[in-house]
Write a structure and sequence with these properties.
The chain has 161 residues and is an alpha/beta fold. It contains four helices and five strands. Pfam families: RTP801_C.
């Protein structure tokens, strides 16, 4: 059996340059989420998690700028990561109980986790009511504090470290 070079046998005229001058699927930049897009995603995930838990009957009040500040800090924490904010998995808990978890970009390898810890607001007027009055309302109202803590957990270690 003899192996012949394809170019001499079938001179089709292929050149070494690309037929398509645009980016390939590997080179195409995937846009990083903006602050408002991430805040809207946080809101959607919290609504879905609330509906799937025992909080479905309760009214949950979140301060107006809380999600925007949380998304701003999430993007700031993700700046130095290899995949940026797209490589983040966001985990939200309220009063120590996990409420929601999601990947910012499901198609990107998770390189770090962002833990967003929310707390109940103990300074509102409902905290002054006796417990038996709180129990009369089914579910009641849960007010989230404007303060939160956020922390990053790396899931890899670089050679420089």
């Amino acid at each position: 059996m003899e192996i012949l070079p394809v170019t001499s046998q079938f001179n089709v005229g292929f050149s070494g340059e690309k037929a398509w001058n645009g980016p390939t699927w590997r080179e195409a930049p995937v846009p990083a989420p903006t602050e408002t897009a991430l805040a809207q995603r946080l809101e959607r995930e919290l609504r879905a998690a609330k509906g799937a838990s025992e909080l479905a009957t309760a009214e949950v009040l979140v301060p107006a700028e809380l999600l925007a500040r949380a998304s701003r800090q999430t993007l700031a924490l993700a700046e130095g990561e290899p995949c940026g904010s797209r490589g983040a998995a966001v985990i939200v808990d309220v009063a120590g109980r996990r409420l929601a978890a999601f990947k910012i970009d499901p198609n990107t390898l998770t390189t770090h986790e962002i833990h967003l810890h929310l707390e109940h607001d103990a300074t509102n007027w409902t905290s002054l009511l006796p417990q038996f009055l709180k129990n009369l309302t089914r579910g009641g109202t849960i007010i989230i504090s404007p303060q939160f803590t956020i922390e990053k957990k790396k899931l890899f270690r670089s050679q420089a470290e």
